[in-house]
Amino acid sequence: MKFGRPSKKNKAPFTIAQQNFAFSRRTLFVGAVQGGFGVLLSARMAYIAVAENEKYRLASESNRVNLTFIPPRRGWFVDRFGKPIATNRTDFRVDVIPDRMVDKDATIKSLAELLSLDTETVERIKKEVKHSSGFQPVQVASGMSFDDFAKISVRAPDLPGVSPRQGFSRYYPSGPAVGHLIGYVGGASAEEYKALKNPLLITPGFKIGKDGLEKQFEKTLEGSPGAKRVEVTARGKIVRELTTRGDVPGKPVQLTIDIDLHNYAARRLGLESGSVVVMDCLTGDILTMASMPSFDPNSFSDGIGVSEYKWLAQDDHKPLRNKTLSGLYPPGSTVKPMVAMAFLEAGLDPEASVGCSGGLRVGNRVFRCWNRRGHGSVNMRRAISQSCDVYFYHFAQKIGMDPIALMAEKLGMGQKFDLPVASQSYGTVPNPAWMLKKHERKWAAFDTVNSTIGQGYMLANPLQLAVMASRLATGKNLMPHLLLNKKAKPPSELGFTEEHINYVRQAMSDVVNGDGTAGRARLPIADVKLAGKTGTAQVVSLDYGRGGSDVSWKYRDHGLFICFAPFDNPRYAASVVIEHGGGSGSAYPIARDVLTFLYDREAAMKTLESMEAGWGGTPEQRMARNLAAFRVQNGVDAKPKPTNEPPSANGAANATASPSPATGQSPSTGQVPPTGQVPTNDAGDE
Question: Is the model's pTM score more than 0.85?
Fold first, then answer.
């Protein structure tokens, strides 16, 4: 039987045999291909099961088990007595890892709803996620309550890229008082990660030093990370914890600072913008180096908001600038004891006198004394106690500027100190050679006159002024130290005669305890006399800068004071600089109260508390109130800044690594001081 229809060309018909043969050939071909694929698949499976068994076993284990770093706790900063300055506290936090987020906007929106985040915080998170690099974590919230932490932990499997963690965060008990001293920590930037390629830098919760001592001692403080292995489901839900290796905390750093004194000095600066430095005259140890107003390092460590940073940046009191090391000021009349020492070393008889009638003509100009009525006949001791400008105008021209400049440098002016800080401003000690090199002109008589009263081109920072006070007080080459070293070598002598040292000491004692310009700086401590020197540095004209409340703050003169106590056996030296304080009357009451604290803490605290009641509270309270007002004024939706709480016991886990307190206590004698009202300038020292 035949099938099909013959073609038009009468070709032979397609038989059943031919059809069966074609089908068998195709079947054979398909079977061969399938068999080949089967062999290849079997070979591949055998290869995977045998040759690459280890690779895929580890991959499988990785899907089942998560291995994460445990960020190490940073080493503490402690003061000379072992009291904490920077510590760690337990912390619930949430971060997001951008590269693991599926829908970034939706995830951030969910977190904002769960944690009731304000608009400013949400905008910050979006901005940081946008500019983050790879797996660099972005902080969402820290210092969370357990309830909020639990909300996120339960939802974490449904929110890819969200990382809730319990760990430790940096805590500064003193808040803004130590902002400029210690600095702050923060998450590593993309640039820092690219430079170091350290996976620890992208571990959520890990912070590095960003400024100040935190940055300078990063290697000492950072410690070694731990690790934790947990079994998880395919969706990332934790089934059980397998093994954990604890972190190794960083080493502590012990400073020369007396944190109680430092906190007091920072608070005593009150509403002023300025600095207080106190040094130990026996060792050169810096006991306090307060600079206010400042920033709260806790805010920076937790991720400072845009509005808070803007508020700090626009403040004309410059809270972001370390005034102790970076602030440069004309030292004013605080240099007069130094100039007097230069006169003595040059052979000037201290009893040589000059008549002060209120001014002295130099060339074609009359340089006035601050006392327009004049001081009459003035010798060296009275010139220091009364701060007579004419005396120094007259004899400085006879002695010349070079001996004065050499003495200034010998006493620490213009000097760089070997301190573990990122930068220092060294100021200027002008002399004829400097003038020719810097300004390409010859030194003139009026340059000597200006410099000899601490004006003109002469500039110094508050630390240099404290060093000058300590060297004048002791006659020794004291060098400031920030790291406690109980085996430090005693300072060398500067080569002054005992007669000259005692003469300058007595003259500076007269400033406070005699008929000088700072009578109200006397200490309310029995048998302890303070010696000092007032100074007023002009910002504009002498008359205008002394103006009252009608003069704009930025045009008022700076107020300065250097001192030491006890005057006949110096133990402490200090400097106080108040920016635009209107004169030295803004500076020496602060020095008086800070030195009082070293001898009678209870009395000093009573004085401070009465003042803070009028100022509106502590620095933290005033900052919180002012920031809230700034946000309202600028229409910013942000939560009030939370009050810092002391670290829990768990946060002190590495306290045992801290050194034991140094022996010895601050003296505590004397009687309750008079009322804590800020006195006005006694004599209007220029």
Answer: no
